[in-house]
Amino acid sequence: MTAPARDHGAYCREIETYLCQKNRGHLIRVVGPAFERVRGWAEAGVPMQVVTRGIDRKLERSHAVGRPRRPVRIEHCEADILDAFDEWRRAVGVTTGAAAAGESTAKKPGATGPATATRRGPSLPAHIDRVLTQATTLLALGEPAPGLHAAVEELVADLDALRSEARGARGTARAACLGRLADLDRRFLERARAAAGPGLDEVVAEAECELAPFKPRMAAPVYAKARSAAADRLLRERFRLPTIRFD
Q1: Residues whose CB is less than 8 angstroms from the CB of residue 230 and which lie 6 or more positions away in sequence, other chains included
Q2: pTM (2 decimals)?
Q3: Secondary structure (DSSP) of the chain
């Protein structure tokens, strides 16, 4: 859950509990300067799910390079948490209110202003190949909801047909491929929502919880769009669904 700004203590304790679990029972207290950082996240409305995702990323990267296992401190996870928060904001369309405050109260270490460089992403064919890999992996696992595998099989067929067209596509041909990917993403999410059944209500409730700190500052249409985007993101996470559109 997202902690209200007035309940910094509960927000901090929830982070301490998660850190304790990840540190194999070793409790690292979030006090002093660390607490001030965490308070900035709470005031910025950083959802707890985003904090835990950032902590997990930090640990996964440390394990991948074979570093000795030492208790992780929340300060070490700050850059990953703020990266995850930026991704969440872009995904759900939150750019105002408390999120804007987060840019000043929860800034990355050493940051002096907006980033001017952008990282080069994967090519369009590489993106399609990656989505195909994720989709075929889903088919190899147990079906998380009735009807979902049928939707994945349909997606694989559509992507296979599109893959050859995407290679070397330029100009209007590339734009057409991007449009088809966006359409496939929308159709696939519609199938996933239908497959979720009553569980979709739980996903929407969780999305509303994440957006609670921002709702008073958002116009009704903007909030409705953000809630839909947040629910879609949570649905992807719950079912491990790929993002098909190419942004």
Answers
A1: 91, 92, 207, 210, 211
A2: 0.65
A3: -PPPTT-HHHHHHHHHHHHHHHTTT------THHHHHHHHHHHHT--HHHHHHHHHHHHHHHHHTT----PPPGGGGHHHHHHHHHHHHHHHT--STHHHHHHHHSPPTT--SS---------HHHHHHHHHHHHHHHHHSPPSSTTHHHHHHHHHHHHHHHHHHHTT--HHHHHHHHHHHHHHHHHHHHHHHHHHTTHHHHHHHHHHHHHTTTGGGS-HHHHHHHHHHHHHHHHHHHHTPPP-S--
Structure tokens at 74: 């929340």
Q: Both tokens of residue 187? A: 């159709």
Distance (Å, whole) CA 242 – CA 110:
33
Please write the tens of the pLDDT for every residue from 50-80: 999 899 988 888 777 666 567 888 998 999 9
pLDDT mean across residues, the chain = 83
Tens-digit pLDDT profile for residues 189-226:
999 999 999 889 999 999 998 898 888 888 899 999 99
> Angle at the Cα of 120 (from 119 to 122), degrees rounded to 5?
130
All residues at 6 or more sequence positions from 51 whose CB lies less than 8 Å from its CB, including other chains: 15, 18, 41, 81, 84
Lookup: tokens for 137: 């992996």
Tokens of 233: 């993101």
